[in-house]
Amino acid sequence: MTTIWDPSLVSEELLGLTRSLGRPQREMAILAEGNTSQWLGEGRFTVKASGSNMASATANDFVVAEVEPLIQVLENRSSTQDDLTEALDAGVHNSTRRRGSIEASIHAAVHAVDPTGFVAHTHPTAVVSVLASIHAAEAYEYAVYSDEAVVVGAPLFVPYAQPGIDLGRLFYRRLREYSDHNGQLPSLILLQNHGIAALGPSVSGVEAVSEMAVKGAQVRIAAYSMGGVSPIPAESMKSFFARTDITERRQHLSGVFNPETESPIGTHTRNLQTGSGNHG
Ligand SMILES: [Zn+2]
Q1: In this model, does residue 269 exceed pLDDT 50?
Q2: 108 is in which domain, residue-wise?
Q3: Got the DSSP string for 13-52?
Q4: pLDDT grade, residue 258 (50/70/90)?
């Protein structure tokens, strides 16, 4: 058994992040939705157990998983959902079976590509609305306002896959491609018809990215309802991110930014599908 139950390894920081994102009024997770993880080093991470509520999570509601065995399950073509479920089983403790969330493979994938302080996967109502819409695939190709671009950077969009081993495999592949291309991980990952993963070196960064994801989605919903999104022009975004004060601001808010390699959303030059005439 590589996944274990050891509440003493669950930090107050992780608990605080989990409860904070789970607050009902934030509309990011209800019931047993969502999960968080913290990198522990030496190939291990704490991740929320299946079936527990984020808002009321305690140290008992987490397990300690190892990255490598979970990645082996994802990479083995003959592995099944049962194999993944078994790999996440930490056994029965205090009469309760403790098992890592079926979405723990998302967290394992992040830590396998580049070990990261904290990862939070939630289902924010506003973001899921955009990601369940016909605009999902192109909705995040452009920044809709400057502070979103500063906090979120260039998000990764992952097409729909069934939660569990299918999503874990697709997520891992897309994340490696992003990392190879950009030289670093995204701060925000969008899961079509599902939710988001926010990642960063600090709790405050993951909070900021999650919160901004919600606001960015609300802006898109409103803009689409008024006829379509009019993105910030690509050239303007490029010069914006060339400014020292902006790179410092991104680093301060989300904890990451490498101006040498990262292309924030809105800096590519694909033809615009919506909006015209007011890009100057
Ligand atoms: Zn989910």
Answers
A1: no
A2: 1-122
A3: HHHHHHHHHH-GGG-S--TT--EEEEEEETTEEEEEBTT-
A4: low
